[in-house]
Amino acid sequence: MTAPHRRPLIAGNWKMNMLLKDSVDLVRKILDGLSSPPAEVIVAPPFTALTVVSELLKDGRVRLAAQDMHWEASGAFTGEVSGPMLKDAGCQAVILGHSERRRYFGDTETTVNKKLRAALAHKLVPIVCIGETLEEREAQRTFRVLETQIKGALAGFAPADLASVVIAYEPVWAIGTGKTATPDQAQEAHLFVRKQVAGLYGDGLAQGMRILYGGSVTPENVDTLMSQPDVDGALVGGASLKAAGFLRIIHFQTPVRN
After folding, report:
1. What is the CA 137 to chain-centroid distance, rounded?
2. In whole angstroms, how large is the CA radius of gyration of the chain?
3. Active site residue 55
4. How far apart are CA 57 and CA 187, in angstroms?
5. Residue in 98, 100, 136, 190 annotated catalytic
6. What residue ranges define each of the domains in the chain, with the CATH number in brackets?
7. Is pLDDT above 80 for 130?
8. Could you give phi then psi for residue 79, rounded to 5 degrees?
9. Is-catalytic flag, 170?
10. pLDDT tens column, 57-81
11. CB atoms closer than 10 angstroms to residue 123
């Protein structure tokens, strides 16, 4: 189970799903079902639903995130959304560098790094995604890929700058496929990430940083994943679109250790 000083975090990434009415219905059901959860809870609706969802989250039990952002505060960037716009819409966090953004829309370590700098400047909690493809895992390159992504995303910061950063390890081969890393695979990757952060910025930052697992997280596998000492939460995709399933993930149960 995650260390006591790192509060678990469960974040729901809705991706390109949910119209306004659907978004409102889902959030109301989530709020109705919350019962002293062991984790902090975040939802990341599509941009179009941010303001209406924000109105429902005024009591602070669930926080609001965006799924991406641009690194400039304003300008001639058609179709993009800036940090000040996200803050204005009620966001408190933002997902950066998701594998789908990297694969389909050209995000790189350089652009993720620029977005991270902007997110921190605008007081948004960044959830920085990293992870290897199936080909990279089969070629025994998982750790090399994670090292490159961590160094690239976090380059140029002082340890104090990164205190609010959350990292989400998402093996690309497990996203939306129904395949999930085993608890041992997840723990191995999370421990490697924590050691990389320690090597770059010191053990104090590394021990306080929350590292989430993402990749076909379900009500059926969340308990075993969350039982791992370096798994501090989950970035949930498809299972976050159904209130009952997402609530079960939020209220995960881990074995009591003597």
Report:
1. 21
2. 17
3. no
4. 32
5. 98
6. 9-250 (3.20.20.70)
7. yes
8. 85, -5
9. yes
10. 999 999 999 999 999 999 999 999 9
11. 10
